[in-house]
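Tutorial sheet, problem 5. The two components below are modelled jointly, 773 residues in total.
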Amino acid sequence: MRENLHRFFRAARGVGVHVSPAESIDAMRAVSQVGFSDRTILRDALLLTLAKSQDEKLALRDCFDLFFSQPEPRQEQPEGADQDTAQDADQAPSSGAASDAGGGSPQQELGPLAQMLLSQDRNAIAAAIASASGAASLSDIRYSTQRGIFSSRILDAMGLQRLRDDLDELTATNPSLAERLRTALDGLREAVRDTVSQGLALYAREEAENLRNEILRNAPLARIERRQVAEMRALIRQIARRLRERYSKPRKRQRRGHLDVRRTLRRNAAWGGVPFLTAWKRKHRDRPKIVALCDVSGSVAQVSDFFLLLIHSLHEVVDDVRSFAFSSHLIEVSQILESKSPEEAMAEIMSKVGFGSSDYGSSLVDFEKEFMSMLTPQTTVIVLGDARSNNLDPRADILRRISERSKRLVWLNPEGRLAWGFGDSEMPRYATFCSVVRQCATAQQLERAVSDIVATYQ
Amino acid sequence: MADQKASTSIEAVESGLAAQGYIASRQIATAVYLSQQIEKPILVEGPAGVGKTELAKAIAAWRGMKMIRLQCYEGLDEAKALYEWKYAKQLLYTQILKDKLGEVLGGAQTLHAALDQLHDFGDVFFSKEFVEPRPLLQALEQPGGCVLLIDEIDKSDAEFESLLLEILSDFQVTIPELGTVSAITPPTVILTSNSERDLGDALKRRCLHLHIGFPEQRLEERIVESRVPGISQTLRRQMVGFIHEIRSLDLKKLPSVSETIDWARVLVLLQATELDTDIVKDTLNVLLKYEADIEAAAPQVTTFIAKAARSNVFG
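Model answer (structure tokens):
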């Protein structure tokens, strides 16, 4: 059973629950206290010791059900096969019993697997499959293409070779028994196949998920397929959580350095100013204030969508975010993003400013007219867009003024560096006023860009 | 054997807590049982008002132990949570002992000799007598063990979390001047959190993680029954059904168990025998704490009452 628990821990890692060795020891101790007899108590005990959040609990509960439901399908699977054999088994028992009682020679000659199949001892078969899958190290399965090889390994471990020999022999001596054995073998194959599929679902998930996420992280955001949007949103949320964890830690206080005389005196007033407790000057660190200007025209819209989602899920890290969307003119969208779900918010933004041909010049004019005064020396301004202004006046002078008023001006461009400056791209002209210009086409680049922006405040 | 014992002991926990008026679900009882057996703290998460703090109180009352409570808040530090030196007392004693000090050091000829003599007396002023134990140290010093409730840990700073790690895993604290203080009897530790911020993995790893959500209808009825004995069965069913309907709405703050109990008390006070639209509308402010929520729920009241009454017939 200990072996089983270890395999369960591996399956748990597969569904994204972090199980460290220390946690597995705790879980073992808990399980040794509650025992295995009551499944719900066992499950509760494992949930209590392994899962660390409500999401993890749900995932682990599913995983537990899948893992410990294994014996059942195996018993049901051969059912169909058994039903068929049951009919001819009617006459078979008499003949089988007779031969058993008589000489006992054919049955005795058979290998253990054949005997087991003929006796239709389901529990024994299930146990044999379980131990064979252990021998074939089924928990190492990683990809769906490995299903065949693992099935055959398990069957080999169960003694398929011997069974084949038995079959050949029986076909000659006892055709009806051979027929029975053959049906039972089909049932067995099916059961093994199911076991392997289940193993795949349990143990390979981690690898598959990692692979998919890796591909998704590096896929260009602008050309993402509709069905992947939801997955991408989940990924962005994951990224946001990671950034939050990394940067929401309280800014470390300066514990040594200059004595803060005023606070030291005040603190020690009770002891007549004898400085028992010292107070040190602290370095004050601001949280980032971010103003984001996002192009929502055509090809950039999707990237802007994900970017806004990311920025707005960083509440704990970022003090203040004001977002603006523009294509031909510019509006503030912070309210919409705060109050609605990502899908609805984006739809509303698009209906207000989307679908226009982008005009960076007039959008910048809009921004200067209404919102310039909110830029402070603590603000980071992020512009997300391809800087393709349809040959209209780019008004780079406004961007210069924005850059002068703010702490940093970061331009994120979904296009590759090579395309900057070709056609109607005004990127080189804008770039002179930006602190940083980066390409930002994939989730990974997006994460790096935002992470860098937040890190400058640390 | 062990298995049998486990399930009966879990039932014992359930009934023990029930005797104190705390109706625990199976999961909660399992958590309490396990925390006793493998001596691990329980981290309880869940929305406000589902009985996280109550659980600690019920355990303390059931096992007849003292409960020590540490309320966390931003800026809580070790001086307020762990121990503090009694500065005033130290200062006072040095003043009183000034003359004595002269006597002791009288024989010394040089400054060095005086210093050596002083060293021989050890750290008189940094001894146990001058330590003011705060909740965490108090909990370790209880001879009969106790229930230590660290309430709303998510409100404290991340530094404070690290401070707790030593206590949670080994039930000991290290005071630099005195050495390590180990617990006489390991206390039962309950930490509660409203998930206002994510707790560190190191802290979570040391605890059993228990999530208490809103209870199922049956369980909630039993809770109301034990807390508000005067309420009639029909009314109890109706009101719990009504609250479950309310929880399906998208509100700022969903009514939790504490609100259910408050409302039950109010209804008993108003001598209601049945839910009707008027009485619900008049008392909705007991359940919902935001004006916007009340406005959102008010138009639905009649439908919800009807639904609650209907489920009552079949349930």
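Marking note: The longest strand of chain A covers residues 289-295. Full credit if you identified this.
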